[in-house]
């Protein structure tokens, strides 16, 4: 899917993917695997990990999550998500199967996200919710998810702040 999207973006800019070296396209396509985490992420996750199980619930594939963890030093306990749950967010199965895999009830799981729609879907499944704004996630002109827009259990300005709120 990433490769298809990359080739579509290249076409938008008048670049024929067939004229680009395959190795260059492969490397560019894997840039997602080398994303640096937000500055508060490693410290915040480490603090949360001292009291809680932490795992990404991503629509990205497991290999992507593994590579991001290795590149950025992300201290996840497990890597979950669409591949493991066999369902993509916002499907209820994605959230509920994740809780089941962890041998937890939905109310024992907290979905932490910068996307109000993701939190709304998780909340409908009985998960606890925590919103962290990432106002530049989609660039300087981002207009959505700038603030909490639901009755979330926690709202924090970053993961370190969330960890403090949760006693970590």
Automatic annotation (TrEMBL):
InterPro entries found in the cross-reference section: 2-HAD, HAD-like_sf, HAD-SF_hydro_IA, HAD_sf, S-2-haloacid_dehalogenase
Recorded GO MF terms: hydrolase activity, acting on acid halide bonds, in C-halide compounds
Superkingdom field: Bacteria
Pfam families: Hydrolase (PF00702)
SUPFAM superfamilies: HAD-like
Keywords: Hydrolase, Plasmid
Name of the protein in question: Haloacid dehalogenase
